[in-house]
Amino acid sequence: MSGKIPDMDVTMLSALAEPTRKKIVELLRDGPLSVGEIAERLGLRQPQASKHLKVLSDNGILEMTAEANRRIYKLRSEPFQAMNDWLKSFRGVMEDRFDKLDQYLRDMQDQDQR
Amino acid sequence: MSGKIPDMDVTMLSALAEPTRKKIVELLRDGPLSVGEIAERLGLRQPQASKHLKVLSDNGILEMTAEANRRIYKLRSEPFQAMNDWLKSFRGVMEDRFDKLDQYLRDMQDQDQR
DNA sequence: TTCAAATATACCTTTACAGGAATATTCCTC
DNA sequence: GAGGAATATTCCTGTAAAGGTATATTTGAA
Is the keyword DNA-binding in the record (chains A, B) (predicted)? Predict the structure, then answer.
């Protein structure tokens, strides 16, 4: 029932790795929405919307507020911060600064010669 | 056969949303490796390693270089840049809980990245 | 206290995919 | 060109998960 503590684990990625759920997240980027609004804007049947929202909530990506008989969903910040931190560890890759391939091949060649 | 053009689509996420593949990516963060080395370091059987590497390659996350009868895999930069760009669109969400100092420092850091 | 709206849940069916094991392919060395 | 090492591929099986449909639950209002 309660959302997981968000660190950059695979459950967060798998939650986002579903087309509809990614759309939901992108939709909520602009602000909180109710289940019905989400379903309508994305052309979903209500049960599927609820199911996807449950998955996202269970993985700590969304949080829910009850408003009368409506449930308002909004994004939590932590998972995105965690994802951002994780991505930072790939900064070297992103910047293409090292071409480690040459070095690697060199090492292999050295080993072969022993 | 050839890798897909990397934009932040769900296929990239689903490729990373598998525990072993995420480990492979994190392993290759430090430099290119051959199939055998990847399998050994992660305790995988060779066929499973090859299969995961194929998925990652098909989604444009890795690229391969043939060296004799070895295949060297390394990370491509584009998918991570795309993921980073996508994440930036959630900056409003991420910064929600930060005071202005943190926001300021973050902006400075982003400038450094150019 | 009954009705309708909004949402969640349960059950079923189908499909995608991961692992296991065997086999095919490629390339070097002798 | 035969053998072995490194890697890819194929086939099989089990399982997780997504959609469809029906139904349960909660809430406000008449």
Answer: yes
pLDDT tens per residue across span A5-63: 556 888 889 999 999 999 999 999 999 999 999 999 999 999 999 999 999 999 999 99
Which domains are seen in chain A, by residue range? Answer: 10-112 (1.10.10.10)
Look up the pTM and report it. Answer: 0.83
Write out the H or E segment, with its range, that includes residue B75: strand B70-75
Total CB pairs under 8 A between chain A and B:
81
State which amino acid sits at residue B82: A
Positions 36-75 of B with beta carbon below 7 A from strand D are: 36, 39, 46-47, 49-51, 53-54, 64, 69-71
Q: Between A10 and B112, where is the model more confident?
A: A10
Q: Is strand C within 7 Å of residue A46 (CB)?
A: yes
Three state DSSP letters for A59-107: CCCEEEEEECCEEEEEECCHHHHHHHHHHHCCHHHHCCCCCHHHHHHHH
Name the amino acid, one letter, at A8.
M
**Contact flag, residue A52 CB and nucleic strand D, below 7 A:** yes
